Amino acid sequence: MAADILVTGSCNMDLITYAPRLPLPGETIHGTRYVTGFGGKGSNQCVAAAKLGAKASMIAKVGNDAYGKEYIENFKALGIDTGHVTMTEDACTGVAPIVVGADGTNSIIIVPGANLHLTESDIDAASSLFQSAKVMLCQLEISPESTLCALRKAKGAGVFTIFNPAPAPQKELDPDFYKNSDIVCPNETEASTITGLEVTDVESAKVAVPHLLKMGCGIAIITLGKDGCVFASKEREEPCWVKGEKVNAVDTTGAGDAFAGALAFFFAKFPHLPLEEKLRRSCYVASDSVCREGTQKSYPYRRDLPEEIFA
Ligand code: RIB
Ligand code: NA
């Protein structure tokens, strides 16, 4: 089965506590509810694309533990190819304790565990996937070496590459990350870290986008939460704003992943749509996801969305 979309990235079990607000440092407060959910930026993006109707394959590492086994079953239930989701004895499945406040804001601690055990040889073992995929997506929740290896391999095979530099890189990335990315799509915080400019709104994003382009990617997109995104490309260097949808946010966790997964979907399945329209539709999918609790389980299926999103 030739995949539309290939994701090389993370699997985390999200351990989500709902509380009236986020606790302050040193403070103890009562939460209202606790749930676990399948998360991790890589898997979230893969699931977002698969729920929209893409054939998706995942390259990832989980621990040989209960969460790892559940994780693989979850992928299978969603029709995602798990031939290259392997288990390690050397670390636990990644976890992410998350607190969600009543206004939908969140704070997250990631413990990567098995994700850091996905190696370049695991990626080499998945060569056949790189030969057939249309789009490959990656993030920064596995080792940077493995991420760069996947980007180079995809680019070398003529696969369209989308790099979501999330969470924000701890140190400067090898310039090859950007040169091997057809799209780079950070949020405001990540864009600030990467460019050294303060990105907080549409205007500052318009200033930062050309800096991202100069780093060597084909298309630079900065996502702005409820304000949509700002983008520019080598073909159209003038930064342009795509307005967000107005919705009542319940839980914004993983909204950026819904956007990235949707973007990969539209590049793979609707390549001829203008870039601005692909972005408008991807923003729509992300906005839809914040109206429900959770990460992957809040992402819409094709049947949940208006017909015109797929026209
Ligand atoms: O982007 C949201 C994701 O970040 C969560 O699912 C959590 O696992 C963290 O990786
Ligand atoms: Na959500």
From TrEMBL:
It catalyses: D-ribose + ATP = D-ribose 5-phosphate + ADP + H(+). PROSITE patterns: PFKB_KINASES_2. Its main location: cytoplasm. Pathway: Carbohydrate metabolism; D-ribose degradation; D-ribose 5-phosphate from beta-D-ribopyranose: step 2/2. One of its GO terms (cellular component) is nucleus. K(+) binds at residues 251, 253, 289, 292, 294, 298. Keywords: ATP-binding, Carbohydrate metabolism, Cytoplasm, Kinase, Magnesium, Metal-binding, Nucleotide-binding, Nucleus, Potassium, Transferase. Pfam families: PfkB (PF00294). Activated by a monovalent cation that binds near, but not in, the active site. The most likely occupant of the site in vivo is potassium. Ion binding induces a conformational change that may alter substrate affinity. One of its GO terms (biological process) is nucleoside phosphate metabolic process. The active site is at residue 257. Gene3D superfamilies: 3.40.1190.20. Its cofactor is Mg(2+). Belongs to the carbohydrate kinase PfkB family. Ribokinase subfamily. Catalyzes the phosphorylation of ribose at O-5 in a reaction requiring ATP and magnesium. The resulting D-ribose-5-phosphate can then be used either for sythesis of nucleotides, histidine, and tryptophan, or as a component of the pentose phosphate pathway. This is Ribokinase. It comes from Phallusia mammillata. The gene is Rbks-002.
